[in-house]
């Protein structure tokens, strides 16, 4: 055994972390393909809430993922759409979180219609020229089919939705023909399924369906391409059994939709078109209940109309507030000048009172009295007066002493200050009372105003100079204005609302 073992092959090669290796690959790819232009057809387009756009660029054999950041998307002159052939300019980069590469698109311009869409338009033109899309070829659906044949994948959510809707509306016998709904096997299997259902003999061991439903969930153009094949369209057109196509979502359209007798926007809607609501049939059979329901509805309608008539006879809430609002405005306008005049009047009165109590005036009066007293003293000497006259003279002298006059002045000053405080307190209490009265009137105005109703989620609809209260008035208006709690919004002329299918009642409520 050697003291030092020879290193095995590859043992001295450096070790990288996953992040280091992903970063190295990113630097190599971005260095080699810093700026590229790619021509291809736009596949699936995703627009999440972040504002970015994620899409696929493809040709007949390859697909590359692309991303358009939010800031670039807002500046694009042409927004990418599925099936559009475009020329994209950007840089190739990698996304280490999923070990994939993608193009960060900086500009995108249309380069013509994609190959798939062009092929689809060509097939549509051929089939339309043969009259397979003509409305007179379409047959009415049976009102209540006994057996319904469904051509779809047995493992997807589509068949569960159809069965659930049929069970809720009117349970019927359902035959399922399992097929592939995408890929190379889709078109031939769907065509064989339609032909196979039509080949069944009425009254045989396996009942022949009265209605066919060809259904599939939503997907991209490539996922739904099997239903754009000519073999499927011709099989649907040749079917003797009425056929409903329910391929993709409401915005998806395939060739089978044009040749089918009825197109449903979703598989669930196809089940709703296939059978009526059982509750409606029960209502048709139960005549007494229908008559009672009709009488009750008419009575409620009459009372509703009477209530509306009485409501129109009532004055508007705004007119009830016109008088109080005007009185509030008048009193509010008079409140400021009245307060100013009251304060000015009390200032003048205070000045008059305080002018008579000035110390200089009191001193001049005291000096005049002292001079008059000195003159009287010269005329009436104390030794010449009697004892009684002497006491009277001393009393007069005591009354005109400076300290007594000063005390009298202080008493009058305190009385004046007390009167001023009382007047100030009374003015403040009266002002507060007026403020409370104004606040109460303002709360009453807010309570009776329709603005509080807007705050609870309602809105006011106006058109052609007045409030719109009926559907017909909204349709006839040239322009509409909707007032919310935080402002108004103008919209164009009225349009009839799209009718939505009524929701089927729960099965437990039928009996």
UniProtKB/TrEMBL annotation:
Entry's localization field: Cytoplasm
Residue numbers spanned by region Disordered: 491-511
Keyword Nuclease belongs to the record: yes
Enzyme class, first EC level, given as a word: hydrolase
GO BP term (any one): DNA catabolic process
Exonuclease VII large subunit C-terminal domain segment(s): 132-490
E.C. code: 3.1.11.6
GO molecular function: exodeoxyribonuclease VII activity; nucleic acid binding
Keywords assigned: Cytoplasm, Exonuclease, Hydrolase, Nuclease
Pfam family for this entry, one: Exonuc_VII_L
Record GO cellular component, one term: cytoplasm
Coiled-coil ranges (or none): none
Role of this protein: Bidirectionally degrades single-stranded DNA into large acid-insoluble oligonucleotides, which are then degraded further into small acid-soluble oligonucleotides.
Family: Belongs to the XseA family.
Assembly with partners or alone: Heterooligomer composed of large and small subunits.
Annotated protein name in UniProt: Exodeoxyribonuclease 7 large subunit
Organism field: Sulfitobacter pontiacus
Gene name tied to this protein: xseA
């Amino acid at each position: 055994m050697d003291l030092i073992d020879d290193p095995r092959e590859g043992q001295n090669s450096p070790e990288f972390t996953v992040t280091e290796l992903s970063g190295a690959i990113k630097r190599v790819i971005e260095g080699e393909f810093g700026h590229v232009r790619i021509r291809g057809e736009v596949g699936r387009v995703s627009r999440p809430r972040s504002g970015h756009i994620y899409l696929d660029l493809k040709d007949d054999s390859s697909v590359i993922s692309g991303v358009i950041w939010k800031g670039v998307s807002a500046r694009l002159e042409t927004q990418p759409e599925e099936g559009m052939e475009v020329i994209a300019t950007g840089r190739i980069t990698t996304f280490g979180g999923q070990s994939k590469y993608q193009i960060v698109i900086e500009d995108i311009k249309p380069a013509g219609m994609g190959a798939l869409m062009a092929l689809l338009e060509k097939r549509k033109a051929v089939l339309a020229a043969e009259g397979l899309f003509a409305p007179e070829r379409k047959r009415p659906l049976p009102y209540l089919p006994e057996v319904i044949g469904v051509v779809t994948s047995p493992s997807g959510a589509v068949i569960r939705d159809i069965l659930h809707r049929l069970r809720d509306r009117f349970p019927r016998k359902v035959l399922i023909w399992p097929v592939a709904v995408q890929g190379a096997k889709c078109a031939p299997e769907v065509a064989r399924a339609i032909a196979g259902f039509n080949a069944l003999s009425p009254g045989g061991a396996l009942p022949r369906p009265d209605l066919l439903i060809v259904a599939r969930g939503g997907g991209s153009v490539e996922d739904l391409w099997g239903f754009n094949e000519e073999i499927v369209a011709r099989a649907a057109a040749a079917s003797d059994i009425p056929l409903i196509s329910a391929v993709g979502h409401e915005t998806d359209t395939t060739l089978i939709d044009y040749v089918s007798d009825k197109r449903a926007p979703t598989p669930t809607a196809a089940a709703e078109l296939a059978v009526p609501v059982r509750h409606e049939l029960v209502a048709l059979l139960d005549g007494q209940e229908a008559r009672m329901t009709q009488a009750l509805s008419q009575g409620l309608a009459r009372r509703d109309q009477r209530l509306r008539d009485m409501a129109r006879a009532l004055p508007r809430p705004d007119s009830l507030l016109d008088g109080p609002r005007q009185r509030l405005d008048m009193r509010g306008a008079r409140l400021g000048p009245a307060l100013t005049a009251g304060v000015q009047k009390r200032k003048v009165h205070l000045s008059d009172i305080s002018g008579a109590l000035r110390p200089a005036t009191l001193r001049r009066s005291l000096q005049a009295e002292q001079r008059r007293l000195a003159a009287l003293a010269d005329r009436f000497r104390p030794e010449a007066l009697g004892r009684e006259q002497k006491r009277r003279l001393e009393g007069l002298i005591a009354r005109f002493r400076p300290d007594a006059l000063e005390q009298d002045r202080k008493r009058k000053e305190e009385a004046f200050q007390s009167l001023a405080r009382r007047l100030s307190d009374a003015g403040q209490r009266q002002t507060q009372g007026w403020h409370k009265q104004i606040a109460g009137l303002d709360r009453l105005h807010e309570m009776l105003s329709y603005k509080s109703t807007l705050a609870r989620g309602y809105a006011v609809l106006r058109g052609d100079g007045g409030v719109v209260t009926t559907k017909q008035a909204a349709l006839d208006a040239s322009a509409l204005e909707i007032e919310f709690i935080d402002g108004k919004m103008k919209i164009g002329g009225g349009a009839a609302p799209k009718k939505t299918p009524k929701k089927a009642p729960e099965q437990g409520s039928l009996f």
